[in-house]
Design goal:
By secondary structure, this protein is of the alpha+beta class. It folds into three domains: about 190 residues, Hypothetical protein af1432 (Orthogonal Bundle), CATH 1.10.3210.10; about 140 residues, 2-Layer Sandwich (Beta Polymerase, domain 2); about 90 residues, Beta-grasp domain (Ubiquitin-like (UB roll), Roll), CATH 3.10.20. It has 22 helices and ten strands. The structure holds manganese (II) ion (MN).
Length: about 475
């Protein structure tokens, strides 16, 4: 069994920055609670639940440089769902902030997405709306990260569903939150299970190209360091970045599988001390390597909608291969890697420097150009989510996305035509209701069916959605 001391050493190895005494106290308490309440529980592969799942999830959180309260929350993220611990006890031991995060994660665990790609965007919004806090989404994504790492132990039928859902929902959310690193991790872990044939093909195509690209980048890296050091007066951090397998696949599909079109298989990142130095460094780079025309992008002057800032250029390496170079400050880098849930931006958000941190929300609701306070953002975010759509749940936790005004009958048809055709009534939040009853958002709806039931003309008045009415009409005409 892992001891607290061993765990502390692991956290220190995973996290780039040091934690405060206050953080360590929260983490130690959470460790003790998690270990005590999960005692005796096992995972599908036979591992101890706490050590084999909660600990790795919290180390994922630590490796994204999230703060101590999030690491602590990760250690106890499954206690409300899977143990005897009550929300009150959790709050007493670790405070309101952590208790609320864990409560949010537990709520998200109840939601299961079905492969309805048509409404995938509203499902993503639903996910965020339930979480109401970017940190909760981040915790859930780190939980998913570890589940993907241990996917092999699940039954085959489940694997593909979870893997595809991870690419469609979780990786997209990570990218919306600006946690680029996490988005790449989730997609690359899920890819082989989600689309096995495409994965194999991509791997074959990439193999040769990656070998060459790695050699080229290695040489440029060795030339870059002394050049930068000489010109800047200090050694900047130079990072090698390799494009993820899944995003290479997406690009290969767009480029008809022509590998020579992938100029960003490998990239170099130079991290300097100020925005001014970014431009200076760009000049130094262009003095040494010939830039490819039209490839310079100034995301410092014009940041991406999600808040991303950096200078991008592509240069000729001298070996026939062009290489992308990104120049940025530490702050810009952390924002790209760890996003708004990271330590820096969360502190900044609490301090009121919030507009930039919330840029990702504006992407969700296309509020890009409006000048709004954070509260206004959140209000608009919430009302926009629920303005014209309602999200209801089946008893199994599947999300059914319907327009406002939709009735229990619409819900039944949205679940399945057969369920619609044989619907007799519905239990909305446990209460029996007629088929004509409008469904409130976030309600749990159980359709009551009877094999003797069939649609009548009256149903056309009860149905609100075009989809349900079409199905009813079809059924009425064949019944005659
Ligand atoms: Mn979990």
């Amino acid at each position: 069994m892992i001891t607290l001391d061993e765990y502390i050493q692991k956290v220190e190895r995973h996290r780039g920055e040091e934690l405060s005494a206050e953080d360590w106290e929260l983490i130690s308490t959470a460790f003790e609670i998690g270990q005590r309440y999960h005692a005796g529980q096992k995972r599908a592969n036979g591992d101890d639940y706490f050590e084999g799942h909660c600990v790795p999830v919290s180390l994922n959180v630590a490796s994204l440089n999230m703060d101590g309260s999030m690491i602590a929350a990760a250690l106890v993220h499954d206690t409300l769902e899977d143990t005897e611990l009550t929300p009150q006890e959790l709050q007493k031991a670790l405070g309101k902030d952590i208790a609320e995060m864990v409560d949010g994660v537990s709520k998200l665990s109840k939601v299961k997405f079905q492969g309805n790609e048509r409404h995938i965007e509203s499902l993503r919004k639903f996910f965020v709306a339930i979480a109401k806090d970017a940190r909760v989404v981040t915790l859930k994504l780190c939980d998913r990260w570890h589940n993907l790492e241990t996917l092999l132990y699940l039954p085959e039928a489940k694997r593909q569903r979870i893997a595809r859902e991870s690419i469609l929902i979780h990786a997209q959310l990570a990218s919306r939150l600006g946690i680029g690193k996490l988005s790449t991790i989730l997609k690359d872990l899920a890819f082989p299970f989600a689309y096995p044939e495409e994965y194999e093909k991509t791997r074959e195509v990439l193999e040769g190209a990656m070998n060459l690209a790695s050699k080229v980048i290695e040489k440029m890296y060795r030339d870059m360091l002394p050049l930068a050091t000489e010109n800047l007066g200090y050694s900047p951090v130079v990072d090698k970045r390799i494009k993820g397998v899944y995003s290479s696949y997406k690009k290969l599909v767009r480029k008809d599988w022509d590998i020579s079109q992938l100029s960003d298989l490998v990239a170099l990142r130079v991290i300097v001390k100020s925005p001014e130095e970014c431009y200076r460094m760009l000049g130094i780079i262009h003095g040494k390597w010939q830039p490819v025309p039209g490839r310079l992008k100034d995301y410092i002057a014009i940041p991406k909608p999600n808040g991303y800032r950096s200078l991008h250029t592509t240069v000729m390496s001298g070996s026939g291969l062009s290489v992308e170079i990104q120049v940025r400050t530490r702050e810009m880098h952390d924002f790209d890697e760890y996003g708004i849930a990271s330590h820096h931006s969360y502190k900044a958000r609490q301090a009121g420097e919030v507009r930039e941190s919330f840029a990702w929300i504006s992407q969700l609701g296309s509020l890009k150009d409006q000048k709004l306070t954070p509260d206004e953002y959140i209000n608009i975010l919430r009302s926009d989510f629920f303005e014209d759509r309602i999200f209801a749940l089946t008893p199994l936790g599947d999300v059914i996305d319907l327009p406002v005004g939709a009735t229990a009958l619409d819900f039944a048809y949205a679940v399945h035509s057969d369920i619609g055709d044989s619907a007799q009534g519905a239990r909305i939040n446990g209460k029996f209701c007629a088929l004509s009853t409008p469904v409130p958002s976030e309600a749990v709806v159980e359709v009551v069916v009877s094999s003797r039931n069939k649609p009548s003309e009256k149903w056309l008045e009860w149905a609100h959605t075009a989809g349900a009415r079409t199905k009813i009409k079809k059924r009425l005409s064949t019944a005659r």
